[in-house]
Design brief:
The structure holds two protein chains of two kinds. Chain A is built from eight helices and six strands; from the N terminus they run E-H-E-H-H-H-E-H-E-H-E-E-H-H. By secondary structure, chain A is of the alpha/beta class. Chain A has a six-stranded mixed β-sheet with strand order 2-3-4-1-5-6, sandwiched between helices. By secondary structure, chain B is an all-alpha fold. The interface of A and B includes residues 73 and 77 of A.
Chain lengths: ~240, ~260
Amino acid sequence: MAKRYATGTLAVQGVDLDIARGDFLALLGPSGCGKSTLLRMIAGLIPVSEGALDFPADAAARRSIGFVFQEPTLMPWASALRNVALPLELAGTPRREAEARAAEMLARVELAGFEHAYPRALSGGMKMRVSIARALVTKPRLLLMDEPFAALDEITRFRLNADLLDLWRAERFTVIFVTHSVFESVFLAERIVVMAPRPGRIVRELSVPAEDRAAPEFRTSATYAAHCREVSHALAEAMEGA
Amino acid sequence: MGAARLLRWLAPTLLGFLFLAGWEWAVRANEVPPFILPGPVLIAQTLARDWSSLSVSLLVTLQITFAALAVAASLGLLLAVLFAQSRVVEMSLFPYAVVLQVTPIVAIAPLIIIWVDDVRAALLICAWIVAFFPILSNTTVGLNSTDRNLEDLFRLYGASRWQVLWRLKLPSAMPYFLAGLRISGGLALIGAIVAEFVAGTGGRASGLAYRILEAGYQLQIPRMFAALVLVSGTGIAIFLALSLLSHLLLRRWHESAQAGEPR
């Protein structure tokens, strides 16, 4: 999958990105650097003012997007199961089939048994799992995540990070993950795109090799620390230039 | 806690009982004549004695109240949905809804009774005018206050206008609609009573308000109080019933339904 994008708006300027199928890409930068704007443009939620997005030729790809917001953004009047089934039902999948697939997806995010719980009864981390299940239930080719774990406590965030990676390794969908956390981006992403504000633009791209990331206890390893240091420096440079 | 819950019922009941006992005592000790102020015991006796005629009137008033509430709820909801679909419709109609709301019903009730031949229909229109606005304005606010991210999500999945309305906007507006309904329930009763007062229709098929007027003319003050007790009781019952409905519909998901639960 390839996307090329360039715009002249104040929010984001001159962004040019090629993303291959199965990439896990993090957009890292301070508040106001246009990472969320970029993500929303990719999702088609806001119009692109200049330049274009290229999706692979098959028309279905445009609709094959999952989106996870910073808040869980669940319908409070519906059970976890009904929330996850929503994207399928909006697309016309019969209710019974949609619910069966939703239940399956809930089990994948380790929420089996919570199908009939209402969002109010779930913890912050569980709500986010429901939100992820909803984004993945349509088996999207592209998963867009807008600082999804920013509001969670660190312990929950670490678990969700690891579980997200497991899901990604199993399914190999493409992920674009917006974050302002250096540690999160290094742990999750193969490619880290560092952005700077005013106007929002890409300043550097770094990569974390798969063999490094596959190491057990990666989060506490020296390689992890080295990558974090490198990314932090890149981010600091980006801020100075701004 | 069971004790706290018991206290919540016990305290007001005890206070009410003390108040009634004090009233009865004051009336008897000072030998106040019943046409000035009857005691609660006499009122209760009158209520029991005149139940056959009062209950017919109660039924008439209840019919008008509930018919007006039903029309107000369905029309209010329908119009609010229309407002949510089209800004132009909202901008052109909302001011007139406000005009209906701020015009005192006592002032326009005589006109409506002159214009509309059927007295019942006239009463219903009056009660509807009073009950209509809270439902319309609350539901409109509710429909406009859906979570923006959820709206984005529906858009992302290519939801139709109908799907957005049915699966997102109406459920979001539900707590607001129910809050409006609770206010309108009481207002519909007030509207019906006020209109009956203005219409002043006699005969067997007349409402509680006419019973109050009639008893007043005949200086049957205990009977007047008995009718008044029925009016208040009806108002309280409507409020409790609508509160219960709201609680049952919202308890699984909305914060407001939790507030009523004992801590």
